[in-house]
Amino acid sequence: MAPQCHGHTFKRKRIAVLPNQACPIQSSALRAVARWWISAYTPDRLPSRREIDLDAIRHALPYVWLVEHVPDDESFRYRLSGEHVNVVFGFSLRGKRLCDIIEPHMLDTVRQRYLHVLNTPGVVYAVGRVYMRIGGYREGERLILPLSDDGVKATHLFGVTDYGGGRRENWEQPPEYMDERFLEIDDVRAWGPALSLDDMTL
User: Fold this and answer.
1) In whole angstroms, what is the distance from residue 161 CA to residue 143 CA?
2) Which of 29, 38, 87, 135 has a Cα-to-Cα distance from 152 of 20 to 30 A?
3) What are 61-96's pLDDT values in tens digits?
4) 126 near 180, Cβ under 8 Å?
5) Does residue 4 form part of some domain?
6) Which residues neighbour 83 within 8 Å (Cβ) at sequence distance 6 or greater?
7) How far, in Å, CA of 15 to CA of 58, rounded?
8) Domain total for the chain?
9) Residue-range definition of the domain harbouring residue 173
10) Model pTM?
11) How does pLDDT run across 101-134, given as a tens digit for each residue?
12) Considering the domain boundaries, does residue 1 fall inside one?
């Protein structure tokens, strides 16, 4: 049964992504970030925030956000957030802790999402009707990827959220319905061939 929190319904899946399976991402911003991350990843080393290629993801910059895990108190702190994200929340997320911006009844759900990316390390991809603090409800897509200061242990979450994209389907679901997939890194690497085709159309 999907976890429910005061009207919020999330459908979580562990999806086995087959080799050469088409990438499910619709948003060009998410596709750009995923393409960069796959190119920067090697089997024995996670990408670092210092390696982020701003030119490669320039069109995605308004949609990205960076979260640092603070081991001392096991908190998460936002280090940057793009303007598209800030408009959705109504303020800049930079410098704020997760508990400062997420409603208390949703905090554990979001923490589990972040911990999957941090500890596995893994990836979270979600698509569905994303709740916004302003502007009502809209379709959205979210991708969260791990970054590491030493290449081994994940220390940061590199997220990209497009609140204006995503597929419109399953309209009978509640307004906050989201299909959320907790993925392994190899699942995301399998998207590489499909994402590489984007370069041919740029």
Assistant:
1) 7
2) 29
3) 999 999 999 999 999 999 999 999 998 888 999 999
4) yes
5) no
6) 62
7) 29
8) 1
9) 9-201
10) 0.84
11) 988 888 999 999 999 999 999 999 999 876 555 4
12) no
